[in-house]
Design goal:
Organism: Roseateles albus
Family: Belongs to the EcnA/EcnB lipoprotein family.
Mean pLDDT: 79
Protein name: Entericidin A/B family lipoprotein
Keywords: Cell membrane, Lipoprotein, Membrane, Palmitate, Signal
Number of strands: 0
Largest sheet: none
Helix content: over 70%
Strand content: under 5%
Distance between the termini: 61 Å
Length: 41
C-alpha cells in the first residue's frame, strides 16, 4: 500500500512539473508577441 501511495505521489509531482513548464512556455510566447508589437510602433 505504501509503494502505491509513493508511486501516485511521484506521478502527481511529474504531472505538476509538466504543467508548470507548459505555462512557462506560454508566457514566454506571449512576451515575444508583446515585444514584437512594441517594436512595430
Amino acid at each position: 500500500m505504501k509503494k502505491l501511495a509513493v508511486l501516485l505521489l511521484g506521478f502527481a509531482f511529474l504531472a505538476g512539473c509538466n504543467t508548470i513548464g507548459g505555462i512557462g512556455r506560454d508566457l514566454q510566447k506571449a512576451g515575444e508577441k508583446i515585444e514584437d508589437t512594441a517594436k512595430k510602433k
